[in-house]
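Recall the central idea of this unit: under ordinary conditions, the amino acid sequence of a chain determines the structure it adopts. In this exercise we apply that idea directly, starting from the sequence alone.
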Amino acid sequence: MNERIEKLRSFLQQNPDDCFLNHALALEYIKLGNDVDAGELFKKNMAWDETYLATYYHYAKLLERLGDEDKAIAVYEQGMKQSKQAGDNHTFSELRSAYEELTF
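Accordingly, the structure predicted from this sequence is:
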């Protein structure tokens, strides 16, 4: 097991709902090809804090890779809504671009 994964898991034992740590661990899982566990962490982040914007892009891209385009579209749409509400134009544009690439 990767040293970074072990460190992240250790930190998460102390604070299991930390969106940043869950997100970082999910990205490490993706690097190892463990899309199932990565997806679960992304879903956990969205349920725990729907305003944690970093999750939307990476989770939707994961869903695209897995062939679940309908779910990816829904995640992009939810992320665009959240980023618009947060006034985060950069994230909104990034999500919209990926969304349009998938839907057009």
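Residues 11 and 89 are 31 Å apart (CA to CA).
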